[in-house]
Design a protein that fits this description.
Layout: H1 4-12, H2 19-28, E1 33-37, H3 44-55, E2 65-68, H4 72-85, E3 91-94, H5 100-106, E4 113-116, H6 118-127, E5 137-140, H7 143-148, H8 152-160, E6 167-172, E7 190-193, E8 204-209, H9 215-226, E9 231-234, H10 238-250, E10 256-258, H11 264-275, E11 281-284, E12 299-302, H12 309-316, E13 327-332, E14 348-349, E15 364-369, H13 379-388, E16 400-402, E17 407-412, H14 416-423, E18 427-428, E19 431-432, E20 435-437
Length: 439
């Protein structure tokens, strides 16, 4: 890979790099340790990948690059970007909630680039599955949150295993606080504070004042007015997510939900169904505010107030990403006020009195296929199978996501039941495979 920068542009279908990406690249020519503060949605992932790939002469079967992140959702999001680059060497992702035995088998072939959460990486190091002796470059994405989430002991242990570190990138969406950096990280590296220079949020802000205390009814009315446009609704606690979810089911509003007590598989399915159009509405705690790069989110609803500015920045950063315009809303009952974290925003009153039709179910639904990459099943196999055996047109096969041992396919909601009946007893590439609706 002679011209890394040009290669990344082509693979990402970019015409040019944005300000964050260019500024980081230029700074990397002056120092090997960079501290980047830039808003959510400003292209940090491509920025640090570009620098890492430019700085590293990759040798196969030698782990040289590491990306550490605070959550599995962020790890999976970065893995998607890396997969899109189609790099000519192996990369891999390890995180809690995933089968550790499956990871152990995959790590027998050493990746040149590893994406990891601190706890799972420390576990693999202790088991002897990962050796960081040859590591030369590391990125700590949302490093402030890694410490807040209680990973400092794991981080310190991980960095004690690194003996040849040549450079590091630390990123945050908000100003990096004063902290003790791990051994080997230069605290005097270049600081790029682009939080004020990048126009990442061009959203319109709306305030909904509820008469009385029935916020749920107001939320349903708002969702009816929004219609089929992509919407994230944020709460502070799991119980609130579950309560609102139950209420939306009662009025037959199709939606998904995410919180920390759901399993990794449940959270993965929820995000896939949101991304592929099976649901245009997703509810969540602030877990939903990080590691999600869904560029088509048009509406963010603060059903409950964000606890601090950092949370508000990440929630609002789910919409108006890139050059897209979005909307944010606060829902307030009579005894509630806008929190300090949102006080600087110019809120306009939103009228809920207008009548709108009930929310129609989305065109797409999601088909679950119980086989994936490790079973030698790919997207071409799936499209051919569904068109030939399931009698779908190619235009009726939507977004396909193939995981290690399963796959998810968007298909027309009105056809999914008959489709399952046609294919559920058939084989794909000679294999009997479970096929059903993804619940």
């Amino acid at each position: 890979m002679k011209d890394i920068s040009k290669y990344i542009l082509e693979k990402m279908s970019f015409e040019r790099y944005n300000e964050v990406q260019e500024r980081m690249y230029e700074a990397s020519k002056k120092d090997d340790t960079l501290y980047l503060v830039a808003p959510t949605g400003s292209g940090k992932t491509v920025a640090f990948l570009r620098v890492m790939l430019e700085k590293t002469k990759v040798r196969k079967d030698n782990m040289q690059m590491l990306i550490l992140v605070p959550t599995r959702e962020l790890a999976l999001q970065i893995e998607k970007v890396v997969a899109k680059l189609q790099l000519p060497f192996r990369s891999y992702c390890v995180y809690g909630g995933h089968s550790i035995s499956s990871e152990e088998r995959s790590l027998e072939s050493v990746p040149s680039l590893l994406i990891a959460t601190p706890g799972r990486l420390a576990d693999h190091i202790r088991r002897g599955n990962i050796d960081l002796a040859s590591l030369s470059y590391v990125t700590l994405d949302e490093y402030d949150k890694i410490l807040q989430f209680g990973y400092k002991r794991d981080i310190d242990f991980i960095f004690r295993q690194i003996s040849q570190l040549k450079g590091a990138i630390l990123t945050s969406a908000t100003q990096l606080p004063e902290m003790n950096y791990p051994c080997g990280i230069d605290p005097n590296g270049i600081v790029l504070d682009l939080s004020k220079k990048v126009e990442s949020n061009t959203f319109k802000s709306h305030r909904i004042d509820v008469e009385g205390t029935d916020k749920l009814a107001a939320l349903v009315k708002l969702l009816e007015q929004i219609g089929s446009e992509s919407t994230m609704v944020f709460c502070n606690h799991r119980d609130a997510v579950e309560r609102i979810s139950d209420a939306l089911y009662d009025v037959e509003v199709v939606h998904e939900s995410i919180h920390g007590q759901k399993s990794q598989d449940e959270r993965e399915r929820a995000m896939i169904k949101f991304e592929n159009g099976t649901s245009s509405i997703i509810l969540g705690t602030d877990l939903l505010a990080r590691g999600i790069d869904h560029v088509e989110v048009q509406h963010v609803v603060h059903y409950q107030m964000p606890r601090d500015l950092d949370v508000a920045v990440h929630r609002n950063g789910r919409t108006s990403r890139g050059d897209k315009e979005g909307n944010i809303y606060v829902v307030l009952k009579e005894d509630e006020t806008i929190s300090a974290a949102l006080a600087d925003i110019d809120w306009k009153c939103w009228n809920l009195d207008k009548e709108f039709p009930e929310i129609k179910p989305p065109y797409w639904d999601t088909l679950y296929i119980g086989a994936g990459k490790k079973n030698k099943i790919n997207k071409i196999d799936i499209v051919g199978f569904l068109c030939q055996k399931g009698e779908l047109e190619k235009t009726e096969v939507g977004m396909i996501q193939v995981k290690d041992y399963r796959a998810y396919v968007a298909v027309p909601r009105k056809k999914i039941s008959s489709l399952i009946q046609k294919v559920k007893r058939l084989k794909i590439k000679g294999k009997s495979i479970l096929i059903n609706r993804a619940y």
